[in-house]
């Protein structure tokens, strides 16, 4: 049995579907599962209908595109709720924190110390060492009061 003969067999598609499903579990990314579904459907169609390898590959490619598109649409319509929605939004996480002015805020602009870094800040005038609260973030500039 050659590799080409094995690829024409419906079992190869079903094994590929299982391997992709396992890979999705080991490396979660909500992507491989859709390709796995396309491989499984291709295997089932190859089992039911006597189609050659070129048509199987075309069917797999078409189903992969359709499955990924459908998956993206489904996740767009049903977003996964996060326990920490600000996880990747560092500036939004700073809102409400009290920070120290390290460069006097004069004319509405200055710099404040947040943890071990210094950020640009806008707000009412404040002297060096004053404690101010972050009320908003606009890009990398913090609005303080």
From TrEMBL:
Predominant cellular place of this UniProt entry's protein: membrane
Organism this protein belongs to: Sphingobium xenophagum
Database matches in PANTHER family: INNER MEMBRANE PROTEIN YBBJ
Signal peptide span: none
UniProt-recorded name of the protein: Membrane protein implicated in regulation of membrane protease activity
One GO process term, biological-process aspect: proteolysis
Pfam families on file: NfeD (PF01957)
Protease keyword on record: yes
Membrane topology designation: Multi-pass membrane protein
Gene Ontology MF: a single term: peptidase activity
NfeD-like C-terminal domain mapped to chain residues: 92-145
Cellular compartments annotated: Membrane
Taxonomy, superkingdom: Bacteria
Secreted listed as a keyword: no
Transmembrane parts of this sequence: 12-41, 47-70
Keyword line: Hydrolase, Membrane, Protease, Transmembrane, Transmembrane helix
């Amino acid at each position: 049995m050659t590799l080409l003969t094995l690829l024409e067999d419906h079992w190869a598609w079903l094994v590929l579907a299982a391997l992709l499903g396992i890979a999705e579990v080991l490396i979660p990314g909500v992507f491989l599962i859709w390709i796995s579904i396309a491989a499984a459907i291709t295997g089932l169609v190859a089992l039911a209908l006597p189609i050659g390898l070129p048509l199987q590959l075309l069917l797999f490619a078409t189903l992969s595109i359709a499955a990924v598109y459908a998956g993206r649409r489904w996740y767009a319509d049903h977003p996964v709720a996060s326990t920490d929605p600000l996880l990747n939004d560092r500036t939004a996480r700073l809102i409400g924190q009290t920070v120290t002015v390290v460069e006097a805020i004069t004319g509405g602009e200055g710099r404040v110390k947040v943890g071990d870094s210094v950020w640009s800040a806008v707000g009412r005038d404040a002297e060096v060492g004053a404690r101010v609260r972050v009320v908003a973030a606009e890009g990398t500039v913090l609005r303080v009061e």
